[in-house]
Design goal:
By secondary structure, the protein is α/β, with parallel strands linked by helices. Helices cover 36% and strands 27% of the residues. The chain contains 7 helices and 10 strands. The strands form 2 sheets. It has a 6-stranded mixed beta sheet with strand order 6-7-8-3-9-10, with helices on both faces. It has a 4-stranded antiparallel beta sheet with strand order 2-1-4-5, covered by helices on one side. Helix 2 runs parallel beside helix 4, helix 3 packs antiparallel against helix 4 and helix 4 packs parallel to helix 5. The chain binds adenosine-5'-triphosphate (ATP). This is NitT/TauT family transport system ATP-binding protein.
Length: 262
Amino acid sequence: MVKRMLFLDNVNIQYKTKNETWEVIQNLSLQIKQGEALIILGSSGCGKSTLINALAGTIPIESGYIEFVKDNDRKPLTPKNHTIGFIPQNCGLLPWKTVKDNCLLPLKIHHKRVDEKKKQEIIKIYEALNISHLLNKYPKELSGGQVQRAAIARAFIMKPDLLLMDEPFSALDAITREEARELFLNVWNQNKATTILVTHSIEEALYLGNRIAVMGTEKGEMKYFMDNPYLGKSYPDDTNYLNTKRLLRDMLKVEERKETVE
Ligand SMILES: Nc1ncnc2c1ncn2[C@@H]1O[C@H](COP(=O)(O)OP(=O)(O)OP(=O)(O)O)[C@@H](O)[C@H]1O
């Protein structure tokens, strides 16, 4: 039986100012299996980043719980209890550190020892993501695609219990994006980290997810879930693929229309 790793139960997330409260996510319940790559598709402003930030521990939840099972032990998901790899929209590389120092920083923070086996593992990740020649450069000396690849390397090097990605490829041009997705999938296939990626790109969802969820505009409600048979297949010339794409597109359109009317 496949283990369920991540449990969200009745999660509520709000933004508050002195006079107002915005409820962005209301009573969200969700479970993720070990080794699953769940892609959450949603239109702009529906709450994707809010959710991913709450999972990463950078935004507090108002109520409900988020728990993760590690070594048969179910505990609240926190950066203290678990290794969480987080690739935010801006990639989050520190500009004053080289690519190599950025990539090794999480190991340093968590006081992880780098023995010969780990060194080899790290070299393989650099090679798989094609950044070995960039290790001594600073983020400002890199192209957008190279920054993304370095951020992905950093996340995989720490062997995360949970990998969170917020529209990681959205700032890239079409060709670089395709290449970065392919390299990502290469490394993901070797590590099978339990992953949640949020995006508004249907193609990205179909290429990178083994499960897809569509998030509505109604306070984080998940409107639709599907197991995705197209993982790793780019643009298959297949009627079912095209129909699936259309179905997802229609769902997102309905959501966008709703938002415009409201
Ligand atoms: N710090 C904040 N204070 C108040 N409201 C916020 C804050 N951050 C986001 N919001 C609001 O919460 C809602 C969800 O924002 P969020 O950034 O999570 O959406 P998103 O789905 O990630 O959008 P996009 O795809 O455009 O990045 C939006 O209506 C936004 O205006």
